[in-house]
Amino acid sequence: MTESQQLTPAEELRVAGMRVTAARVALLETVRDGDHLDVDAIASGVRQRIGHVSLQAVYEALRALTAAGLIRSIEPPGSPARFEGRVGDNHHHVVCRSCGAVADVDCAVGEAPCLTASDDHGFAIGEAEVIYWGLCPDCSSARSSEHP
Ligand SMILES: [Zn+2]
Ligand SMILES: [Zn+2]
Questions:
Q1: What is d(CA 96, CA 119) in angstroms, rounded to the nearest whole number?
Q2: What is the pLDDT of residue 3?
Q3: Distance in Å, CA 124 to ligand 1 centroid
Q4: Does the pLDDT of residue 49 top 90, yes or no?
């Protein structure tokens, strides 16, 4: 475990050079407790912790925490952005085309970037983001029972 895991969320914000606000602390906790939550789910988690917070404040905190690298956003095309507290390991995601469920897929190599580009065009590549699309177990069993 890294040293940052012994810090409280408020201390982590401070270490990242960020202003500490109740909304940011609650948001960091909500995202880490959750599993690839979308903005609506994050907003309700924040409100459960600290009472009313405007959606604008939630967006502002999400942007700030993502930019600071404390949380990570996943933006599957055609589905709402999700946020997670698992950062820095360059893992990937599998997304269900039917219900939008998201699950983590570990990097096959274990270090970033875990895909070597066939042509890097001279860029120093630091990350590879892969989304695997398919059907989650619930959706695929629902389909096969529709069409026995
Ligand atoms: Zn599904
Ligand atoms: Zn993830």
A1: 30
A2: 52
A3: 36
A4: yes
In DSSP notation, 88-137 reads SS--EEEEETTT--EEEE--SSSSSS-S--S--TT--------EEEE--H
What mean pLDDT is predicted for residues 99-104? 93
**Residue 147 to residues 8, 48, 61, 67, 143: CA-CA distances in angstroms?**
51, 42, 45, 46, 6
Distance in Å, CA 69 to ligand 1 centroid: 29
Q: What's the whole-number average pLDDT of the chain?
A: 90
pTM of the full predicted structure? 0.82
- Tell me: pLDDT of 45 over 60: yes
Task: Determine the distance separating the centroid of ligand 2 and the alpha carbon of 84, expressed in angstroms.
Answer: 6
Instruction: Quickly tell me which residue has 């895909």 as its tokens.
Output: 115
Q: How far is the CA of 74 from the centre of ligand 2 (A)?
A: 8
Output the CA 121–ligand 2 centroid distance in Å.
28
Pairing assessment for the beta strands 37-38 and 72-74 based on DSSP bridges: unpaired
Residue 125 has a pLDDT of 85
